[in-house]
Amino acid sequence: MQLKSSLKQLLVESRANPGFTSLYVGGVAFAVAFTMIFAIIYYVHLAPLYPEYNRSSTYYINNLTVRNDKTGAMNQSSVGIPFVREFVEKSKNIEYSTIVFQKQGFIQPPDQSGDFSVNIIDTNPDFFRLYSYEFVVGRPFNEAETESAINNIVVDSSVADRLFGDPEQAIGKEISISYKPYRIVGIVRSGNPVAYMSYANVFRPYTIRTKSDNTSLKGDKCDYLGYYSVPIKFKDSRQAERFREELTEKVRRINAADSTGQRLDIQSAPISHTVRILSQRSNGENLSMTEYLKPLLITLLLLLIIPAINISGMIGGQMDRRLAEIGVRRSFGATRGHLTRQVMFENLILTLFGGIIGFAIAWIIIAFGRNMLLKLIIPAWECIDAPAEISTEMMFAPLVFIAALLLCIMLNLLSAYIPVRLSLRRPIISSLNSKR
Length: 436
Description:
- It comes from Duncaniella dubosii.
- The chain crosses the membrane at residues 21-44, 296-315, 348-369, 395-418.
- One of its GO terms (molecular function) is transmembrane transporter activity.
- It is a multi-pass membrane protein.
- This protein is of the alpha+beta class.
- The chain is built from 15 helices and 15 strands.
- It has helices spanning 3-16, 18-46, 81-88, 127-130, 143-147, 157-164, 167-170, 237-256, 273-279, 289-321, 323-331, 336-377, 392-395, 398-424, 428-432, and strands spanning 58-61, 64-68, 74-79, 96-97, 101-108, 116-123, 135-138, 152-156, 174-177, 180-188, 202-205, 225-226, 230-233, 262-265, 271-272.
- The strands form three sheets. It has a six-stranded mixed β-barrel. A four-stranded antiparallel beta sheet has the order 4-13-1-15. Strands 12-3-2-14 form a four-stranded antiparallel beta sheet.
- A hairpin with a 5-residue loop joins strand 2 (64-68) and strand 3.
- The radius of gyration is 30 Å and the shape is elongated.
């Protein structure tokens, strides 16, 4: 099969049947556009992106439940510092962990130009080990500052630019957040709200928030409840599984030793970043990865199979119109394999052309409707009040390009091969007489 002659043949057929060509390309573009929207959105939430480069090895403990079997009372909340100290920090089956409490506050600019809102994370120094924020200037607050609850904070470059015009000028300066003074010790490159588990404009030691949450255990399991999400960094999935077994056993022992009727429930914690996104739950459920992937796979198959069936029917009609041409070419020695490759090539070119258009449509839809689309994936209670950004890193990711190419090839194989082979099985005489 010669490439030049094949392209000429495709051009002739496209001009002779513009309706078929337009519908074919449009059908492929529709399938690719909506599939790529799903692919890009899930890529944004699952792939390693700034500053969440450790997503594949990051797990979370987000919620705990304390039930009283005697009274029927139940308390559910985020994680408290006593739980972190007793069950997480002492474990040898983790690399390191951090704590995160997200909230909003208001900065009072020195020039009195008007308060503006910022997203705040209360955390500890290990936050900057787990989440790879790039320091433009300065440093993170340290353990001593955290233990002493000193009002030293880290802000992102957007806050530094707005307040001082230059990050270099912000270091050491004092600012007012919710009418409390804080001193800036570090400036990080701004994150992205799509990385919502680590996104903030201001980072401060968790001990500033409240002294009462930093108490020791009093024997009541409700002391394990608190305000924090607990991201944990593991070396690999095996270490994560060992920690889960260790945690489950510790919880089983304290529940068995309790005579008051209180029972601590950790559900399936810790859960991986992937499970948290796919399950759209803070702690997930005791389901296999297949159960989480099933809805996504069904949606993907529907987006592939329905257009493929429609395109296949169109190709079948087109092949019926070309039977006479096929009969002539076979009578001059063209083999079925040669003709199959020719027609498959033509359809592949049309499919790739439709794929490029579909990819462009997907970019446009995501660029202009990113906030709405991202909220379809992120649970409402996780959404951050900040404009979402789809960066070049996300839009032009190699994995997304590969997915688009494979999608085009799959559509071509699904839609074209069967009608082409059925048409070529007809006898040459029957093909030649099809136009009589």
